[in-house]
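Here is a tokenized protein:
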Amino acid sequence: MGLIYTNSYNSDVGIFEEGYLNDCSVDIEIGTVLSEARNDAEFIVRMQDNTIRKGCLIYDESGSEVGGYVYGIKVNTSSNEVTLKCKLWRGMLMDHIIRPPASEDYFVFDGDANDVLSAMLGDGYDGLIVASKKKSGIYISGKARYQDILSVYENALANVGAKINITFYGNKAICEAVPIRDLSEEIHIDNDYGIPISAEDCDNGYNHIIALGQGELKERQVYELWMMPNGVITDDTKLEKPSGIALRTFVYDYPSAESYDELKKGAFDKLLEISPSKKLEIEQGNIDAEVGDIVSAEERITGIYMKKQITRKIIKGDIKNGVYFLKTELKVGD
């Protein structure tokens, strides 16, 4: 990694007056929408060394996803420090809303995922964030109405086993759809892996949802789902489901669901959101994995085992005299 800053960015001219970020502290958090990651970064530099202002860019010269737009500056004269607040590319995708075309109820999409993203982005980022022009070979469809770009796109890709990949080349953040990498056979992290693990197993959530859709009283649409102890979600009433003190039920009022299928999807998404949490936090070490990839991890004391996506990536540390002293932490699961 080599972090470069620009003194400014102009959509007509591009990037100019670049330099390496040096002698500063680094705090970066990248992640999926569902993980509630900040998708921003802070860099604390010495006041006398700082030439970076609002509107500048910071990016990784290797082309990785690390990078974004400096939206804020905080000066502390007592400590002689300047904090640069940077919105990462994913965070910027959350700032723009997909609107339905005039006289239409929804923005409807159907086609190659990169083409769909290009239509979602339009010219909203002045050429700084763009969709890849090549075909992804990944087909998505759906509809959106006043939702942010990243949420809609991530959800559509997840339905077909894909994720968003962002690289920075040629003065642009290039976004494309790629298949999710299942690295669970190659990367299984446990207590003997030599990497610190923080585990949490908490049942303070819901494992049963009753979704109520259109209609009144006995005519109202009702749909139920259960999350089994192994994490599988089912609507099969014949299975032995959580009961007694192990049962925790949530009533989901969704009268605006336009169809029974939409009610079912809404119930599924809501149960995922409110279900009991199992989390693993891993200090990355030499693991070659990114947000959206699937790894397997196990913590023996709690008995938590996961084969799930990496949902957040946190990078912290310092840059001193051009040497990077950074630690990367991965969060797996919800």
Summary: The first strand starts at residue 3 and ends at 10. The radius of gyration is 22 Å.
